[in-house]
Every structure is written in structure tokens, then in C-alpha cells.
Amino acid sequence: MPLIDLANTKIRVIGYSAVMAVGQLISSAIANPATQAAAGIIGGPIALGGVSILAAIAGSLAETMAADELANRMTEGLSKNPRILDNHDLIKAAGEAIGYILREVASSDRLIAIAETKNLPYPETALSQLAEKTPEYWLDINTNTADLSRGLNISEDQLTKIFSADAEEFDRVTGLTTADWATFVNEFAASEGKSFDAEIVEFVADKLYATFPKAYREVLKLDAAKGGEKFAAMLLNLHQIALTELRDLGLQNGEILHKLEAVATQQQICQVMGKLEAIEIGIRDDLAQIRALLERYIDPAAPSLPIPVKSETIIQDRIKDFTGRKFVFEAINEFLRTKQKGYFVLEAEPGVGKSAIMAACVVMLKRRCVTHFNSQPDGIVSAETFLENACTQLIEGFNLKDKYPRLPENALKNNNFLGELLKEVSAKSSKDKKIIFVVDALDEVDWKAQTSNSNVSYLPNDLPDNVYFIVSKRPDFLTMPTANKTVFDLMKYSAESQKDVEAYLAKRTERSQLIQDWIKGRNLQREQFVTAVAQKSEKKFIYLRHVLDEIEGGTYNDVNLNDLPAGLEEYYQKHWGQMMGMGRENDPLLELKVRIIYFLSQAEEPVSCRWLAKSAGDKNVMTVQQVLGKWNSFLRHEKVGKETRYTIYHNSFRQFLEADEIVQSAGLTLEDINDDICDNATGGAPL
Length: 687
Description:
Largest sheet: 5 strands, parallel
Distance between the termini: 46 Å
Strand order of the largest sheet: 2-3-4-1-5
Structural class: alpha/beta
Helix content: 55-70%
Number of helices: 32
Shape: globular
Strand content: 5-15%
Oligomer: single chain
Number of strands: 8
Radius of gyration: 29 Å
């Protein structure tokens, strides 16, 4: 990063910090009753929102001025004032906030997952070291080459939030761009002889973008609570500069001026800042405390177990944007803490996030658990596959390869060998650590291929002490071990799930300008959008993922909020109706579209374009790729060598396609599709 760009980045952060400090001081002094009482400020109530506060100030000026113009004029003056840009304490406060973020983000679950997936060193130590040096490094950046004419270019929407005394409104303030923060992180790391993977830098930069304003506000608030020994003088100086600017803009005697003039000492500054409502910064994962509890049950120094590639692919996909579910992990922790052994069974309907919970569990256990994800779309449905994965992971994880260079001949016929392995590894493992299995989607297992009266996946009835299975399934009946079983019915936790759905929506909306533009284009408030879409989702995260992706992709550009699909079934119905309805007679690819999606729904593993082309009787692979683009939101892509293979993303869509009325509308039969697949296999069609 050129030094001039680094200087400009620092100047922008300092200018932004000054504006935020002034915005929070002024808004709190004007509108916060608790602040006014503490500081001895007298006056009537004013709404907490940034629009109301800026409008109140603008209404007290001698000349007519719109609220947004007032905010822009103040920002411009603050961002170019040399007394502010050279203020040592302001620079130090910003540096402390950056260091705070780096220190907190260093132990993020997502960073651990990135490192383990790419076989990289854990970044926690390196980031923590940078965090300690951030204030010093930040102070030393030379700003003589900075271009002060560029300004801050803070949007009207952001300025409104900055001048808000409403904590929820300020909570949505963001800082520099992610790209700005990424270049800063790279340059800072290089100066200390360190470097990070691009995905790690992107994650850290995204956290700086989203949380710097809140972290900076918290640094000032905490200092005020301690008497303001570090930053009260700086804040008073900023307040006096802002007050001078307002007088120059024509602020007349009256209630607003009186309230601002009443904050005239460092003690009053501390009273104003100390009364700011607390905001959850949200830098660490909200599950950090739970993760720390779960880590007690494993040996973090031991190597992670060899998770199958397909299971790892599912894990990486499902933990993307993972949000909440703390109450589920608290129950898992209580199960592990209080039970001597046993099965924890997570039961829930399709689409509510069972696989995501199981994936997050694997990550929080740092992959020191035996992991198996059943998946019909991926062809992982047999008890034999589970037994092979489980036994292999135990043998490699507990250094038994010399004793078992290969699995015994009958190891996959029943659970006898698995049971013997469990006794062996249980006897040699530490008594204060646990042997944990995480097995997803038992309902997708082809149990009919097993011997009669056996447990699904041949799960063992008798477990040695300190052996635990965390499994998930739909509420349907499955033959399972009955002893030492704890069933957790996720559907009984409606209020908690609703809260998690709304948190997921808020997170996705906060970081997506495209979703924000969609909301703004319909004159909606974010809260309206979150509440309405959460209700339409019926607490199904797969619905949210589809709909939010399609809002970003432009599918709903001509659709209002009320017309978004109501529930997952209606979402599928609308897509199917669009495909089969309008323009059906004029669509030469319609038959191919239908056959391809049905071939994908019935295929027992991910397949290639070449396989689909041959199955559909169309030798043009490019045409098949064009058709796949129409179904893209329903598919998961998997790289095998240089080739991409495709499978249905979620089993709920497969089941939708298999419903009688949908099959009839498609004008085909599942028997015909499966016959073609068998013929294809017999003919040696490529995957």
C-alpha cells in the first residue's frame, strides 16, 4: 500500500472518528433525558432519532437549512480542521478501537474454520500481537502526504445514524469500506513481518468495516466511566469546535444552544458519554462462550480428525452466515456435562437449520469429533458409508493404523467392529475428555438396505462411558437406541427461533447494499422488512437463504414486500409456476429444463454436465449449462478435478419435485426418469 494511501486512510478514520464523537455528544446532550439530568441540562424532550435531532438543530439556525445540509456542513468543517486531524488523543482513541477489534476477532470461529479448511496456521496469535501494537503503529503513520481535499463522503443515511441518540440506530453505522480496511490490515501485517491468507484478511476487514464505529464509541464510553482521564479533554475540545461551527452557521439563543453550552467541563463530558446506552459490538461470535465450554471436552492439542471431503463441503456451506442457536448449544453442553454417555437427538422439520447447527457444532469442537453428514443429494445414505467413515476417523485419530492397516472384512456389515473400537479408544483416552460423534440427517439414511430390526446406520445400543453421539433427524420414527437418549425438539422453541431468524435477516441486510437498496426503493424501514420476511419464512432458514439471494440477484426487482412468497412451499410453487407457465409454448428449452432438474433430483450423487447431457439425450453440453443457470439457486456446485458437478441443494426441494401434482404438471414419471438413469449407468455415461 503506497504511503500516500495509508496517510489518506488514517485521515479518513480520524475525520470519521471526530464526526462520530461530535454526533454522539450533541445527540446525547440534546435528546437523552438521562444525560440531561446527569449534566444538569434543562429543556423539553426531543425524539432520539438522528433525523429529529438534526432537524431540531437546523430549526434553531438563523437561516433556513435542511437537516442533511447541516450535517454535511458540520462534517466538512470537522474533517478538514487541522486542530482535529493532529489531535494526539483522537488518533490514540481510534487506534485503541482498531486494536480492540483485532484482539476480539482473533479468536473467531470463522477464522478457525478458514485456517483448518485451508490447512493454515491458526491466526489468533499473530492477530493478537498486531492488536497490541496497533495504537503505536497508528500514531506513527505520517499524514503529511494526505489529500485533505477528498473529504469524508459520508452518506446522508450514515450521517443521520451518527447524530442519533437511539442506540439501535447508531448500531447500524459503518466505517470505511471493506477494501480500505483490507489494505490497511495487509500493510500493517507486512510492517510486522506477517502475512495472512486473503480470506482471513477479508473476514477481518469486514469486521472492521461493520464494528469500528461501535468499538470507537465503546472506547470513549469506557474512558468516561473511569473519569475521562484519557479522552475527556479531547472530547471537550471537539465539542467546543463543533459548537463554534454551529454558531458560525447561525445557531441562535434558545433551548438547543442552551443544552449544548451546558456541556462545558470535562466532568460534564464524562456524564454525557457515560450515559450513552450500551451497544453490543458483536465482534466475537455470539457463541464464543459456548465454544469455550465445549472445548473443555476435547483435546485441542490433538490433530483434527480426517473428515470426509463431502462432509467438509457441507460444513463449509452450512456455516456461512450462521447466526444464533445459542439455546441449542447450551442444551448440548448440559447433556455433555451431566450425562455419563448417550445420544443427544436434535429433532426438527426440514429447512429450519438442523444441518447448520450440526456443522457449527463440528467447528466449535475444532473438528476433534467423529463427523458424518448423511445427504441424499450427495449419495451419502448408507449405513456402510457411516461405519467406514466412523471407524476410519477413530483409527487415525487414536493412532491405531499399525493395528488396523485396513478395516476388517465384516466391519461394515454391522456395528460389532465399531463397538470394539469404541471400547478400545475409550479405555486409552483421558477420563476428563470425551469421544464425541456428530451425525447429521439420520432421516436421509436408506435404512431399508439394512438388516431387519437394526438401528438406523447400525448405531450401537451400548456405549462405553464418555462416548456421546450428537445426531439430527426429522420428527419421523426411526429405529434408534432407546437407553441414555435425550431428545431436543427444536420446534418447541418458537420464540428463540424467531429471534434467531430476525438476527440472521438483520445481519444479511446490514452487510448487503443490494438488499438495502431494495428496501429503500419500496419506502420501507429495515425493521419492517425484517419483521415481514421473518414471518413469511415460517422460521425456515433455507427460505431466507433463497429469498435474500434472489433479492440480491434482481429476481424480485418488480415485486413488493407483500408479494414475496409466503413460506418455503409457496416459494417452490412460484418458481415452478414461472417455469411451467408463462411462455411455455414459446420456450424450446422447457422440456430439457424439466428433465434436467428431475435427473438431478433422482441422481444418487453429484453429476456433471456431460452426464446430464447424455441422460437428457442432448449432446450439446453448452445447452445443458445454460439450463443449469436457470436452476442455479437450487443447486450446489462441487469441484472434482477440473470439472464441476451438480446436486440439489436441499432435500426439501427434491421432495417438492416428487409430489404427485408436481410430477403430473411436469408431464413425466419418476419411473421413466429412473429408467433413463439406469440405462445411462449401463451405457457407461460419465459422471
